[in-house]
Design brief:
four-stranded parallel sheet
């Protein structure tokens, strides 16, 4: 059985990690720099980041791959390294989880592309799907237990991401980011998301 499905079956609640970005900045990441290359260049720091969450009692922690799509990495001329960087994110996380004295889940973090899907922007749904699929393939190869689509703000982009990961063979969790008015940047409410999820 997949580790994520097993922990859902065995536990009434799951404690997850938090403040990844804050921790990375404290470790030396500069504002504007991509954290994904650290999975290779500063592997010990990423290992320490994950280990800190495990030591604090987390049952699940996220890989250092939030901005791991080609669209985000292109801003730093790293778009050709999508698979490599995401696989490395999964691999270093897997090493930490496997050393724990209990079952710890590795969630493959997949954040928004930073682009808008047409007609609101220039990105097509097909391009978004292709970008998310390439990221998911790298994370899966690195050994993650679940794909974690996080802080999405557009229903169209979330659906493109879900389409991208449907054949990867891993469980999928999806979250959206809501502001103090109870909506995403694109006006989606939790009720909208619930209705869409129910119809999925």
């Amino acid at each position: 059985m997949n580790n994520f499905l097993k922990i859902l079956q065995d536990k009434d609640h799951i404690l997850a990690d938090g403040a990844t970005g804050t921790n990375l900045f404290e470790m030396g990441l500069e504002t504007g720099d991509p954290p994904e290359p650290w999975n290779l260049d500063y592997r010990d720091r990423i290992r320490s980041l994950h280990q800190g969450f495990v030591d604090a009692g987390s049952d699940l922690f996220l890989t250092n791959s939030f901005g791991g799509t080609s669209f985000r990495l292109k801003l730093h001329n790293l778009e050709s390294r999508v698979f490599e960087l995401n696989k490395a994110a999964g691999t270093v996380a897997r090493e930490v989880a496997d050393r724990a004295d209990r079952l710890v889940i590795v969630a493959g973090s997949m954040g928004p592309t930073g682009e808008m899907i047409e007609p609101h922007g220039l990105m097509t749904s097909a391009e978004a799907t292709e970008a998310f699929k390439a990221q998911a393939e790298g994370l899966a190869e690195g050994g993650v237990d679940v794909l974690w689509l996080e802080t999405m703000y557009s229903m169209e982009e979330l659906e493109a991401a879900l389409d991208a990961v449907k054949d990867i063979g891993l469980p999928v969790c999806a979250t959206m980011s809501f502001d103090t008015a109870g909506k995403t940047m694109m006006g989606i409410t939790p009720a909208n998301l619930a209705l869409r999820a129910k119809g999925a």
